[in-house]
Amino acid sequence: SFSLTEVAVFIKRLRRKTDLSNMAKTMRTVLNSNSKVTVLRSDLHAVIDQGFLDVPGNLFQKKFRNPEELQNDIELKCLNDLMSLLAPSTDIRVLLNCMSSNLEAFVIQPSRSKEEFRKLASDFQLRWNFLLSAVSKAMTLNYADSFG
């Protein structure tokens, strides 16, 4: 018999797979539409270039413009790389591979132990979620056409 913990973990994994599958379907719909991709790119660049992101000391803009410093902020580099690949008819696997390569280079390879990996991974996830929330908030507050 299974413990409740094993069942809970299994259910969590299933939910995650379902969420990822739904996100992939949504992204494919966006990526297959020239107008949607164009508007999304334009809106992303607008919130960044105009400094609308709610990040302390406008850290995002300073880092975004300096490639050397960008290396120190993995999540900013990941967003920049994804935006550079965002084009009509981009295969979603290209975006996933880009993210995967960055995580391999900046989170997995630098980890010398399981504990260090956990720390680097959780730090990245926290900052990535914070950054995406800031982008989403900026797009909402500025009535970006692509939001939603």
UniProtKB/TrEMBL annotation:
Keyword terms: DNA-binding
Keyword DNA-binding attached: yes
Annotated protein name in UniProt: DNA-binding protein RFX8
The keyword Plastid is annotated on this UniProt entry: no
PANTHER family tied to this protein: DNA-BINDING PROTEIN RFX8, RFX TRANSCRIPTION FACTOR FAMILY
Domain RFX1-4/6/8-like BCD residues, every copy: 4-148
One Pfam family in the UniProt entry: BCD_RFX
GO molecular function terms listed in the Swiss-Prot or TrEMBL record: DNA-binding transcription factor activity, RNA polymerase II-specific; RNA polymerase II cis-regulatory region sequence-specific DNA binding
